[in-house]
2,3-bisphosphoglycerate-dependent phosphoglycerate mutase
Amino acid sequence: MAKLFLVRHGQSLWNLENRFTGWQDIDITDAGIEEAKRAAVILKKEKIDIAFTSALIRAQHTLTIILDEIGKPNIPVIIDKALNERSYGELEGLNKAETALKYGDEQVHAWRRSYDVVPPGGESLKDTYNRVIPYFEATIAPLLKEGQNVLIVAHGNSLRSLIMYLEHLSPEEILEREIATGIPVTYIFDEHFHVSRRDT
C-alpha cells in the first residue's frame, strides 16, 4: 500500500510578520528550520521513494532539511510551480491586519477564507485547486499507483487543495481545515487507489 506524506513548509519570515506571502520567494525562519527538523523525526521511520516541492524557496528549504535529517538527501526531487502557494496578487507583502483596516475585515476575510473569491490580481482557492489537482493526477498519482511512497512539501493552500481532493471535501469543509507548519499528514492508499487511512 502506497503512502503519501504532505508537509507544509516551516514558518517563513512573512508568516512571522503576518504578511500575505503568496508567490513571493521568502525563506523560512529559525523556527521554521526547527519545524522542518521535527517533521523529519516523524518521517524518519518511513520509506520515501520520491519527493515533490514547489518553485518557492521556503518549501524547497524545508524539504532539504527533512531529507538531510532522515538521511535520504539523494532521493529524486521534482520541483514544479504547480505546487506553489496560492497567489495573493496585489496583496502580497502587505500586513494582514493593516490590509483589514484599509479594506475592511469582511472583505479581507472573503479574500482569505472563501473558495472562489479572487483577491486583486491573485488566485482563489478554486483557482489553486484547478492548478494543483491536474498536476497531481498526471504526475504524482501514477507513482502512488505503482506503489511508490511520495513526500510533498508545499504550502497551506496547495496542500488544502490536495486534501479537498483526497478526502472529497466540500468548499465549506475545506475552508475549516487548518494545516499546521511542519507536521506531516499521511495518506495510505489501498490497491484500488482509495484512501484507506489518514494519519496526522
Observations:
- The longest strand covers residues 3-8.
- The radius of gyration is 16 Å.
- The chain has a mean pLDDT of 95.
- The chain has one domain: 3-199.
